Amino acid sequence: MPFTLLKYGLNKNYPGHGDIPATPELRKSYDVAIIGGGGHGLAAAYYLSHVHGIRNVAVLEKGYLAGGNTARNTTTIRSNYLEEHTIRFYKEALELYDRMSHELGFNVMFSQRGQLTLAHSEATLRSFHLRAEMGKHVGIRVEVVDPATAREICPLVNLDEGGQHEVLGGLWHADGGTARHDAVAWGYAKRAGEKGGEIHQRTEVTGFRMDQGRVTHGRTDSGDLAVGQVLQAVGGLNGQFAAKAGIRLPIRSFPLQAMVTQPLKPFLDILLSSANLHTYMVQSSRGEIVIGGGSDPYPLVSSRVTFDQKEKLAAGAVHLMPFLHNVKILRQWAGITDMTPDYSPIMGESPLKNYWLDCGWGTYGFKATPVAGKRMAETIASGRVPEVLKPFSLSRFERFALVNEMGSTAARH
User: Fold this and answer.
1) pLDDT at 208 over 80
2) Mean pLDDT on 348-354
3) pLDDT at 406
4) Of 5, 30, 52, 157, which is the most exposed, with the fewest CB atoms less than 10 Å away?
């Protein structure tokens, strides 16, 4: 392998090729139109073409490929949730991430390093025991650890013994990890394009034509197109976009901010988070410390950043690891989260017969990318919602059958 790479690199005539398919002319009709060119939409296009043989698919993205929340998350992947339905769903996502690089032939830099969430109160510790028991029941690797074990897992963490935020224990999730967000999107885009899927960047869907409870045509700024099935997966704008199809969703949008420091030598080989401090940290492959926390406390459709959130994230990070106090912040950014009342997604049927929903992800969207794409593709291809998605139906709000994940982590990432 090293000699092959060397020969390829030194060859002046090696065949250059792009990973992202070129944008073709928009055709007059498609079997499936996927609205949103982020991770979920691209994954659905891949599974439709490679698994179900549906290749007349258009992914319609108003901006650039994966330029929304897929480009703005903090790469965390985990399955240590509260509800059995959710744990099973994200367990499948982790299994798909584990073999994604091999399946796509594209290195997504999946790193299963484990996540440690710290408890600073008895109430938090009790909730960790509940999450650990639920996780073990479903079959994921999660356990409650004492402060001494937390120190062994992360030797540099400040346990604040006797202080206001003394660490009383932690939730260790050995299955937790990270993946390169843009590589995930590019890998799915490349493979979907190989089977005929079309990716139309800078193509905004502005509305729909309907007949007898079905969408017949989509209106775009590049022309109208007839559609057989439609999948909506537009990230933080799902609530607002659904209104174009006459659908009202129980979703509000909130900014979610994060930041990274200057590169440092490797010292943090796990994902570290604190429930009370609303802070989580992970070191990237380039040495940067990625720092995030909870959503902004007020609804807003904006990706602007604020100084007060930077102060809160910095304070939490310095408390967890005081030696970071002089480290410089390189950049700060924000995404837009589409939050539901129970902090769980909406997947499956909509009030329209051929219009399918993949929305309401809040701060959990990147983790679900492969399983959401796989299961939504299955739904579209078969016309039936699989069992794993049924608990997340839109109708659960009418039936008061909520899937409450509000407390699955105080940092809500």
Assistant:
1) yes
2) 97
3) 84
4) 5
Q: Write the CB contacts of 15 (distance below 8 Å, at least 6 apart in sequence).
A: none
Q: ∠259-178-403 over CA atoms, to 5°? A: 90
Domains and CATH numbers, the chain: 29-111+177-251+340-413 (3.50.50.60), 112-176+253-339 (3.30.9.10)
| CA distance linking residue 356 with residue 350, whole number of Å | 6
Structure token pair of residue 152? 């062994």
Contacts of 301 (CB under 8 A, 6+ apart): 236, 237, 240, 253, 336
**Contact status, residue 55 vs residue 157, Cβ threshold 8 Å:** no
| Beta-carbon contacts of residue 338 (< 8 Å; ≥ 6 apart) | 235, 236, 237, 238, 239, 251, 252, 253, 359, 360, 361, 362
The CA-atom distances, in angstroms, between 280 and each of 73, 130, 287, 293 are: 13, 21, 16, 6
Candidates 325, 399, 370, 338; CA nearest to 96 is: 370
The angle that helices 84-98 and 369-382 make with each other, rounded to 10 degrees, is: 100
Mean pLDDT of the 202-225 span: 96
| Cross-strand partners of 332 | 259
- How far is the C-alpha of 332 from the C-alpha of 306, rounded, in Å? 9
pTM over 0.90: yes
Whole-angstrom distance, CA of residue 266 vs CA of residue 191: 33
Q: What's the pLDDT tens digit per position in 268-294? A: 999 999 988 999 999 999 999 999 998
Q: Is the pLDDT of residue 38 over 90?
A: yes
Output the pLDDT for position 192: 95
- Closest by Cα among 288, 299, 301 to 259: 288
Strands 289-293 and 279-283: antiparallel
Element (H, E) at 241: helix 238-242
- Is the pLDDT confidence value at 410 over 70? no
* Cβ neighbours of 305 (radius 10 Å): 16
> Among residues 364, 390, 355, 389, which one has the least CA distance to residue 374?
389
How many Cα atoms within 13 Å fall on the side-chain side of residue 354?
Answer: 21
